[in-house]
From TrEMBL:
The keyword Ribosomal protein does not apply. The keyword Transmembrane helix does not apply. Residues 7-124 form the Gfo/Idh/MocA-like oxidoreductase N-terminal domain. This is Gfo/Idh/MocA family protein. InterPro entries: Gfo/Idh/MocA-like_OxRdtase_N, Gfo/Idh/MocA_domain, GFO_IDH_MocA-like_dom, NAD(P)-bd_dom_sf.
Length: 330
């Protein structure tokens, strides 16, 4: 008898769903995609035909009313995450919502409460956190491989300023580089350190050509014992996604920090040891982790508390840039 699988519906035909999440679900062990919805049936049907998805719906409500669907992935623009997560929960569907899960802490709490009341699983789609390289690196740090952590530097940038209709350039929709890619180094520092930041100071470049969103931001996020995350993120700069963990006796550098490449350098006394293993699909790992919770009742690895702390830090970074002042977080 074949193993039971979680039956997924996809709310929208977003590029991230097509490029990454749907292939990841299909590459996983305990999941399958059975439906997709768009506000246009023609668009949904074309998407379904191209990706060989059995069902297409011309509204999100129709997909949520399908009793066959157990879980939904929500890659909608950020300002719609709360509305459709709550509607999905009320329809009895488990929810994997794209990051950042909400625009602020209050929205996130409403989503958490709705899912708890409905008895459904809620997870935020930071896929990279499921990669084994982060488990390995945390174990190395705990074993004293690079001494005591003195600081973390993280960057995530890409260059796409000419796409003026991009949803990332609409401030009222939760656009901007901090929400879109700055959330990665922020969440990574929290993951690596295992604690929450105390305060943040951010400087940003807001572009009138792009809806006055932050097209580039640089920040300092304060943790305990004098440790800080320095980070930058951009949608109008040369692309990179690196994390460096600096210790008293060495450092660890991840050159491709947020995707499936299992490669990092341990640098001590000028000597470099490169650790490299077979790459993993973080979207598949994320889907199977979600299935463990839906089918097996296993607690999600990143709890509701984690969701709240993460959006508090991310929103604090944006608030700091907009107010041009240091923001206390905890």
């Amino acid at each position: 008898m074949s193993e039971k699988k979680v039956r997924w519906g996809i709310l929208s035909t977003a590029g991230i769903a097509k490029r990454s999440v749907i292939p990841g679900i299909r590459a996983s062990n305990r999941n399958e995609v059975v439906a997709v919805a768009s506000r246009s049936l023609e668009k949904a049907q074309s998407f379904a035909d191209e990706l060989e998805i059995p069902k297409a719906y011309g509204s999100y409500e129709e997909l949520l009313s399908d009793p066959e669907i157990e879980a939904v992935y929500i890659p909608l623009p950020n300002h719609l995450h709360k509305e459709w997560t709550i509607k999905a929960a009320q329809a009895g569907k488990h929810v994997l919502c794209e990051k950042p899960i909400a625009l602020d802490e209050a929205e996130a709490q409403e989503m958490i409460d709705a899912c708890k009341e409905a008895g459904v699983v809620l997870a935020e789609a930071f896929m990279y956190r499921h990669l084994n390289k982060y488990t390995e690196i945390k174990e190395l740090i705990a074993a004293g491989e690079i001494g005591e952590i003195r600081g973390i530097h993280g960057v995530f940038s890409f260059n796409n300023p000419k796409d003026y209709n991009n949803i990332r350039y609409k401030k009222e929709w939760g656009g901007g580089s901090i929400y879109d890619v700055g959330c990665y180094p922020i969440s990574a520092a929290r993951l690596i350190l295992g604690e929450e930041p105390k305060a943040v100071t951010t400087q940003a470049f807001f572009s009138p050509e792009h809806g006055d969103v932050d097209m580039m931001a640089s920040g300092l996020m304060e943790f305990s014992n004098g440790v800080a995350l320095t980070f930058d993120c951009a949608m109008w700069a040369e692309g990179r996604m690196e994390v460096e963990i600096l210790g008293s006796e060495g450092r660890i550098v991840l050159p491709n920090a947020f995707f499936g490449e299992h490669k990092y350098d341990i640098i001590k006394g000028g000597k470099v040891v490169t650790v490299e293993k077979e790459a993993s699909n973080p979207y598949a790992l994320q889907a199977d982790s979600f299935a463990d919770s839906v089918l097996g009742g296993k607690p999600v690895p990143f709890s509701a508390t984690d969701i709240i702390h993460n959006i508090r830090a991310v929103k604090g970074a944006l608030d700091s840039a907009e107010k041009r002042e240091r923001v206390i977080l905890n």
